[in-house]
Design a protein that fits this description.
The complex is a heterodimer of chains A (about 120) and B (about 525).
Chain A lengths: L1 H19 L4 H22 L24 H32 L23
Helix pairs in contact in A: 1-2, 2-3
Chain B lengths: L27 H15 L6 H27 L2 E4 L10 E4 L1 H24 L2 H5 L2 H17 L3 H19 L5 H32 L4 H9 L7 H18 L7 H5 L5 H26 L1 H27 L4 H22 L2 H32 L10 H4 L1 H15 L7 H13 L3 H27 L25 H19 L2 H15 L2 H8 L4
Antiparallel strand pairs in B: 1-2
The chains are: A mainly alpha (about 120), B mainly alpha (about 525).
Chain lengths: ~120, ~525
């Protein structure tokens, strides 16, 4: 089952990289959202996929009898989801504010901080 | 739950002994800053109280870090596990000399920035949360320096990243939004790469504790194998992005000159250095074989970074943008230490990181003062500042000498160590690049001093003539809040230049503690290693 998920993750990464290489800020942000999901799936798969075996230990034993689903990647993914979601929300607002102020969402045209025809530094002393 | 009366020996999985009172210091830096940040956030409308609270908590942070450093020097590496679960199950905070030294210097710099911010951040900036963001940024910085768990390191990176976003857009200017877009997107991609590599590392070893990882990697038959090489390459790219190494440095010159100058000062001092710290921690402690395998790549990146930074600095006429490139050149020096990888070289990189944290913050503050005095950040319009304050001109010259690596200031000793280590490792080009970069940085800083301080007035002023400059003179500037932080940082620069023994000892101890990590591993796993 891992191989199927791995192919899916690969597709997620492909789409994310393709979108992030775009010049429109909105598409870049969509790429980042998909990248976050790709990373989450990757962590989840790295914890090995075990179907429908909850990590319960019977009363008379100290350890589960069979291999169970690994709970740690789920905790990691949960953390990562919260973080990437909050960053995505922040970046969306930032992009909207930048669009309002700069009047563009083309990254090539965002040249306020680094003007295109910058003056040369002082020549001579 | 019948029959669960079996007595279980908890000591195998839990730390049952009470924790020594002094060991609570391990979590004190994070606790103080989170509590302080929350308190400042609640009182954010009280703009008079904010600076007092913020500076108070930052002062407390310095004291806590100093106490922790003394404890680490007395007792060796200290480990504390969350919820008392023994490693590798519980999240561990492992404090060694490397981490606590950087954490202490970082908190001193943040304290100075807090004081400087009292004079430069207006009430709007305070209401929008300058002090809460600064404190939470320090939570992330100190947490990253002190944690012993690699996923936890990622979380601290995100804490400091989201706080830095808040600081960067404080004020909402057009130019800030432009800079923040580039900074935000590229840094987020960087942390995602970090997370990918961490996920894969977990997939291979099934653990996230740094000491456990170091042991398991060392136990591998072929520690430079294919999968680990992928992980190492991803980590290198991720931390190079965080540290602004060439060719992934473009977010830094695009954004560092856009916010309030005190924010730039904190960023220039701390953010890139956390990236370098993580690089040292992971490549020297956990993946030493991969570091050896990638040493040539790291050396090439270091050379390119050294030269890009220095040449970029020469091409700028805006002081803050120029300083942004000087930050990049410094990153190259630290990467050179990682590329060589001997204890000597790593100690040079650590000393350089300490020096760079102090001197870059001081230089950005000095740029802010230049703007207050001369009304501009542009070298074409600045001039005649020497007549306004000869003492400030001297301070700037000291800082310029230090950042270029000239004696007798703090930049000299780490550069000597790094060049020596590079030459004795046979990496002549790397040593030469450090020297050339230092020479070009000297030129760049010399130009700033000549144009802004020595020249009689703005561009076009003839030799020997002095033009009266509007703007405030040195004594008119709002007193202690401006001069005290710059004074403290400059004093440190001079002190580490004239009396380097103390910092040399700390950085050597920090370096040998991760090159031969027996003390680190024993602290985490007890005496069984």
């Amino acid at each position: 089952m891992e191989s199927g998920v791995v192919i899916l993750i690969g597709m997620f990464f492909t789409v994310a990289v393709y979108l992030m290489l775009s010049k429109q800020l909105v598409r870049i942000l969509l790429g980042i959202a998909i990248l976050g999901n790709a990373v989450n799936l990757l962590i989840f798969t790295n914890g090995r996929l075990t179907r429908e075996v909850p990590p319960l230990i019977p009363d008379h034993l100290y350890a589960p009898e069979t291999a169970t689903a690994n709970p740690l990647p789920q905790a990691l993914v949960l953390t990562a989801i919260v973080i990437s979601f909050s960053f995505f929300a922040f970046l969306l607002v930032l992009a909207f504010r930048a669009y309002q102020e700069l009047g563009t969402d083309e990254v090539d045209e965002m040249r306020i901080a680094e003007p295109e025809h910058d003056q040369t530094p002082p020549q001579g002393y | 739950m019948a029959g669960s009366s079996v007595s279980v020996d908890l000591s195998q999985a839990m730390n049952t002994a009470p924790i020594a009172l002094g060991d609570w210091l391990v979590v004190a830096p994070s606790l103080i800053t989170i509590l302080g940040g929350a308190l400042c956030l609640m009182l954010r409308k009280n703009t008079d109280l904010q600076p007092k609270l913020g500076i108070g908590f930052l002062g407390l942070l310095v004291v806590a870090n100093l106490a922790l450093l003394i404890r680490v020097l007395d007792h060796g590496v200290i480990t504390m596990v969350m919820g008392s679960w023994l490693p590798p199950f519980g999240i561990a905070f492992t404090v060694d000399t490397l981490g606590i030294t950087l954490s202490l210097i970082g908190s001193i710099v943040a304290f100075c920035a807090g004081v400087f911010g009292a004079a430069t951040v207006d009430s709007t900036g305070r209401r929008y949360g300058f002090y809460p963001f600064l404190l939470l940024l320090m939570t992330g910085v100190c947490g990253a320096f002190l944690t012993g768990d690699i996923f936890n390191l990622y979380v601290w990176f995100e804490v400091l990243l989201i706080s830095s976003y808040g600081l960067l857009v404080l004020g909402n200017d057009r130019i800030q939004l432009d800079g923040a877009v580039k900074y935000g997107v590229l840094n987020l991609i960087g942390t995602n790469l970090f997370l990918i590599a961490t996920g894969m590392l977990y997939g291979i070893f099934g653990t996230l504790n740094m000491a456990d990882l170091a042991l398991k990697v060392a136990a591998l038959e072929n520690p430079a194998s294919g999968t680990l090489a992928t992980v190492a390459a991803l980590y290198f790219l991720a931390f190079a992005m965080k540290a602004a190494a060439f060719p992934v440095n473009f977010w830094l010159p695009a954004s560092y000159h856009t916010p309030n100058v005190v924010v730039s000062a904190v960023f220039a001092g701390l953010l890139t250095k956390v990236g370098v710290y993580a690089l040292i921690r992971i490549f020297v402690l956990i993946l030493p074989a991969s570091r050896g395998y990638m040493a040539d790549v790291i050396a090439l990146v270091a050379i390119a970074t050294l030269l890009t930074g220095a040449i970029g600095a020469l091409a700028q006429s805006e002081v803050r943008r120029l300083l942004g490139y000087v930050v990049i050149a410094g990153i190259g020096s630290m990467l050179a230490g990682v590329a060589v990888g001997s204890t000597l070289a790593i100690s040079g990189a650590i000393f350089y990181a300490v020096h760079s944290i102090i001197v870059m913050t001081a230089l950005y503050m000095a740029a802010g003062i230049m703007n207050m005095m001369g009304g501009s950040y542009d070298l074409r319009q600045l001039g005649g500042l020497y007549q306004k304050s000869a003492a400030f001109a001297a301070v700037f010259l000291v800082l310029g000498f230090a950042v270029s690596g000239l004696p007798p200031f703090s930049g000299f000793w780490p550069k000597v160590i790094l060049v020596d280590a590079a030459f004795s490792d046979g990496r002549t080009w790397l040593g030469a690049a450090i020297l050339v970069s230092g020479f070009l940085t000297t030129l760049a800083m010399g130009r700033v001093w000549i144009f802004a301080f020595w020249r009689g007035g703005p561009e076009g002023t003839t030799d020997g003539e002095t033009v009266a400059i509007s703007g405030e003179t040195g004594t008119q500037l709002s007193g202690a809040a401006v001069w005290l932080p710059l004074g403290i940082l400059t004093a440190l620069v001079v002190y580490f230049g004239l009396q380097p023994e103390w910092m040399l000892e700390l950085s050597t101890q920090g370096a040998s503690g991760i090159v031969e990590p027996l003390g680190y591993l024993r602290s985490v796993f007890g005496g069984q290693v």
